[in-house]
Automatic annotation (TrEMBL):
One of its GO terms (biological process) is methylation. It is an enzyme of class 2 (transferase). It comes from the Bacteria. The keyword Electron transport does not apply. InterPro entries: Alpha/beta_knot_MTases (IPR029028), RNA_MeTrfase_C_dom (IPR019230), tRNA_m1G_MTases_N (IPR029026). Residues 4-184 form the tRNA (guanine-N(1)-)-methyltransferase C-terminal domain. Its EC number is 2.1.1.-. It holds the Pfam family Methyltrn_RNA_4. This is tRNA (Guanine-N1)-methyltransferase. The keyword Transferase applies. GO terms for molecular function: methyltransferase activity.
């Protein structure tokens, strides 16, 4: 199975008016995505933010749980943050992976929209489980990454379709659902699921 990395992109991102912005970090994204990444054995969770002031905030929060009094209050949180890295841009995350694995990663992203290079969860799961090349799965904040940025990636995973027509999950929920579909157990293949 391929090593899997994930990244949370904060720029360039659309706002609800389709203007390009930089989104703010949220405490929940730091904690919840780190815990989900650890649960699914993701090698590294990259928090990708261009603003130093936002990285300082993220670093303070993470250090509270990694080396501060949070270590004693909630040791599980420390463990979740062990494989979390703060980087300035996507290129820094890619260089980290190349240094870690000796190979350029396949870059996969997610979006609520469909593109020409959109693949299904089954196709992507198969690629990850049959390949040894590292995969970097990117998640956008706000209203998603810009179309220009999306065109640069190797694959785009199909949107998450629920039972209704609403299609605007928070990124924490999307990360959990997508990692479960790509890396989780194959519960649908058991006799009990029939």
């Amino acid at each position: 199975m391929a090593p899997v990395y994930i990244g949370l992109i904060h720029y360039p991102i659309y706002n609800k008016h389709m203007e390009v912005i930089t989104t703010a970090l949220t405490n929940y994204d730091l904690h919840d995505i780190a815990r989900t990444a650890k649960t699914y054995n993701v090698k590294t969770y990259f928090i990708i933010h261009p603003l130093e002031s936002q990285r300082v905030v993220a670093s303070r929060i993470m250090n509270h749980w990694k080396t501060g009094s949070g270590v004693y209050y909630n040791p599980n949180r420390k463990e979740a943050f062990e494989d979390t890295e703060l980087v300035c841009n996507l290129e820094d995350a890619i260089n980290f992976i190349k240094k870690d694995c000796g190979k350029e990663p396949v870059i996969v992203t997610t979006d609520a929209r469909v593109y020409p290079n959109t693949v299904t969860y089954c196709e992507m799961r198969k690629k990850i489980h049959e390949d040894e090349t590292p995969f970097l799965i990117l998640f956008g904040t706000g209203y998603g990454m810009t179309k220009e940025m999306m065109k640069k990636f190797d694959y785009i995973i199909e949107p998450i379709y629920g039972a209704g027509s609403y299609n605007h999950l928070c990124v924490r929920s999307a990360v959990a659902i997508i990692l479960d579909r790509l890396l989780g157990e194959t519960w649908w293949n058991t006799k009990e699921s029939l």
